[in-house]
Amino acid sequence: MQFHRKPHTYVNNVHLYVEDLNRSVQFYEEILGFKTLERTDRKAALTADGKTALLTVEQPEGVTPKEPHRSGLYHMAILLPTRADLGRFLQHLLLNGIRPGSSDHLVSEALYFNDPDGNGIEVYRDREPEEWAWNNNLVVMATEYLDAQGVLDAGGGQPWTGLPADTLMGHIHLHVGDVDAATEFYTKGLGFEVVSQYPNANFLATAKYHHHIAVNTWQGEGAPPKSANSVGLHSYTLVYGDDKVLQQAVESVRSLGYTVEQEGNVYVTADPSKNRIILSL
């Protein structure tokens, strides 16, 4: 699949605030199977392939616990290459006493659970795009029971040995205060299109993926942003295919009235609910 490669725009890193860096690194290494790429006293970059950081966890000074009913992260979604990988991972979770939520979304099969700070995680595998159904330019998605035994069987009883090297950050799903305002920002500003809809939620993508980004008001209309130092989403990174498309996004976001700051070779902005976004090549 080509949905997470240039020339398309996609998510490639999520940066989370956590209360205890040591605890978080241990969880993400032992439960998820990440490897630590770089680490300081307060921050760690985690990788699947040993080269690219998919997840950054940071313990800021004065960190406070996760706050309820705020905009921010609903979940980050880690995309495994195959159903067999998902089966081995599910077996691994169960052996470690974690009983995840699960869903068959028609386009994908997914497992859901939280990290020790309450940050939401999805681990999923995609069905082939040829199996997806489209109706009036919207991909057909649902939330149905997962065939968990079938997923386990696909793993062949083999042990989980960590994230495969070609694991990706498949998408990010955000709580926002206003779905319409967020959708305008992501479509007219950042160049995504609406590809599916749920009650009080829109799913957005490039290249007709089922979604790279989703936004919802499931924490309540008008949910305020989290406090600056609380657990949750610090930022996430979008990769653009070339500088022309990136500059177009920067100008479009500014034309909508939002601030975009250049920091080195990247740009930093925030959506209407103050979810911080790094725009990069």
Query: Which of globular, elongated, flat, extended, rod-shaped describes the shape?
Result: globular
State the CATH architecture of the domain at 10-75 and 158-280.
Answer: Roll
Cα-atom radius of gyration: 18 Å
Specify the CATH class of the domain at 10-75 and 158-280: Alpha Beta
Give me the CATH superfamily of the domain at 10-75 and 158-280. Answer: 2,3-Dihydroxybiphenyl 1,2-Dioxygenase, domain 1
**Strand tally, please?**
18
Q: Average the pLDDT over all residues and give the rounded result.
A: 98
Protein name: VOC family protein
Organism: Chungangia koreensis
Domain VOC: 10-126, 168-281
Keywords: Metal-binding
Protein architecture, described:
There is one protein chain. By secondary structure, this protein is an alpha+beta fold. It is 20% helix and 35% strand. The chain has a domain of 189 residues: 2,3-Dihydroxybiphenyl 1,2-Dioxygenase, domain 1, CATH 3.10.180. The strands form three sheets. An eight-stranded mixed beta sheet has the order 2-3-4-1-15-18-17-16, covered by helices on one side. Strands 6-7-8-5-11-14-13-12 form an eight-stranded mixed beta sheet. A hairpin with a 5-residue loop joins strand 3 and strand 4. The longest helix has 13 residues. It is globular. The two termini are 20 Å apart. The model has no long low-confidence stretch (mean pLDDT 98).
TL;DR?
With 281 residues, this protein is of the alpha+beta class. The protein has helices spanning 21-32, 83-95, 148-154, 179-189, 243-255, and strands spanning 10-17, 35-39, 43-47, 53-58, 72-80, 101-104, 108-114, 120-126, 134-135, 138-139, 168-175, 193-198, 201-205, 213-216, 232-239, 261-263, 266-270, 276-280. InterPro entries: Glyas_Bleomycin-R_OHBP_Dase, Glyas_Fos-R_dOase_dom, Glyoxalase_1_CS, VOC_core.
